[in-house]
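Journal club prep — side note

Before the paper discussion, L.F. wants everyone to see what a predicted structure for a comparable chain looks like in token form. Sequence:
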Amino acid sequence: MTDALVRWKTASFCGAGHDCVEVSVKGDRVEVRDSKDRGGPVLTFSRRQWEVFVNSLRG
């Protein structure tokens, strides 16, 4: 899937300095990238892995 067809969402806690991550959900995968380097590496997680990670942040 090309980047033009993927919908990326910027993290809700993104500050004015634009030190943010962007997230894209594609089926059973969640992809994460650095908003400052949109052509750079992308981390891929299963939906379950992502849920566990996000829930651990809510503590």
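L.F.'s comment for the group: The helical segments are 47-58. Keep this in mind when we get to the figures.
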